[in-house]
Amino acid sequence: MNMHAPSVRIRDLDLQFGDVKVLKSLSLDIRQGEFLVLLGSSGCGKSTLLNCIAGLLEVTDGQIFIQDQNVTWKEPSERGIGMVFQSYALYPQMTVEGNLSFGLKNARVPKAEIAARVARAAEILQIEPLLKRKPGALSGGQRQRVAIGRALVRDVDVFLFDEPLSNLDAKLRADLRVELKRLHQQLKNTMIYVTHDQVEAMTLADRIAIMRGGVIMQLGTPDEIYNRPQNRYVADFIGSPSMNFIDGRFDGETFVAGDLAIPMQGYRFSSESARAGQATIGIRPEHVVTGELVERAPVQTTVTVNLVEPTGPDTLVYADLAGGPLRIRMDGHAQVRAGDVLPIGFEPSRASLFDAETEERI
């Protein structure tokens, strides 16, 4: 195996259902041992892409390579993949041990090898005490661990996860997220993970591919996606609450919206010749500073508070700026009420500037 070659290569992939194009000339390289997350809202094509990689859907055009082998027309069982679905899909009449070993028995793997693989998977996933139980006696989190274990025993190069945590409650999701990250660090296999949950994506991924309408809008590390979104869609999709957007005009040096003038010194432009014209500036709620920090901010102004939303660790403040809504994330202990005049500031280098027409990053 060439460790420098991509683990999974997708070239010009098209998938069409009737007249509807679900995937459009999609190309993607997934590195050896990488945890790649396919992220997007419902209907963006992320699960469809995963099912194409798995061989569960027949592509209309394009090619898929796994470990340098062209698997475009191969059966799922011939692709060297293990898949974990949203539904646990366990056999209710079999014990956990039976569920883990079933596929291996069908593949005529020797008994000693089956026992060794099941024991190893059970140890990694900490389900050894559950091996004699049936799925009906397990919690949701335990069942999902068994479903992951069933993929694990196959000893494959690539693991595919299709929203595996979405059926679990919030606390279990958070716990299993940590376990999945630990599992990847331990195994170092290539993992491709589909989710609509941006927290899952940001915490698990080495890189994130944000999808919309069957194409990849941006591929990058969580840090790149969060701090340098390549277009307005990505900027709006990532972050909770989402980014503030103010429409105005950029003259090549300064962004102006109403009475607000923001000098863009220190901002990293996407190209050397930043185009002047109608533009939108994006500022994350957590990048708006208040209190003592305002004095040190390059841009300072005041806003009138419309609404305050305490969430425990944070207080979300809603106001208006330059004719548009502004959300500000403050500390949970912040003493602020509707009607207050609040001094605020921010650092233009942390903002994002988008062309109003193309919505691409300037």
TrEMBL record:
Biological process (GO), any one: carbohydrate transport
InterPro entries from the UniProt entry: AAA+_ATPase (IPR003593), ABC_transporter-like_ATP-bd (IPR003439), ABC_transporter-like_CS (IPR017871), ABC_transpr_MalK-like (IPR015855), ABC_transpr_MalK/UgpC-like (IPR047641), Mo/tungstate-bd_C_term_dom (IPR008995), NA-bd_OB-fold (IPR012340), OB_MalK-like (IPR040582)
Family: Belongs to the ABC transporter superfamily.
Source domain of life: Bacteria
UniProt xrefs under PROSITE patterns: ABC_TRANSPORTER_1 (PS00211), ABC_TRANSPORTER_2 (PS50893)
UniProt keyword Lipid metabolism present: no
Pfam family, one: ABC_tran
NCBIfam families in UniProt: PRK11650.1 (NF008653)
Entry GO MF terms: ABC-type transporter activity; ATP binding; ATP hydrolysis activity
Entry GO terms, CC: ATP-binding cassette (ABC) transporter complex, substrate-binding subunit-containing
Alphabetically ordered keywords of this record: ATP-binding, Nucleotide-binding, Transport
Protein name per the record: Carbohydrate ABC transporter ATP-binding protein, CUT1 family
Organism in which the protein naturally occurs: Limimaricola pyoseonensis
Upper taxonomic lineage: Bacteria, Pseudomonadati, Pseudomonadota, Alphaproteobacteria, Rhodobacterales
Keyword hit for Transcription regulation: no
Domain ABC transporter, first and last residues per copy: 8-238
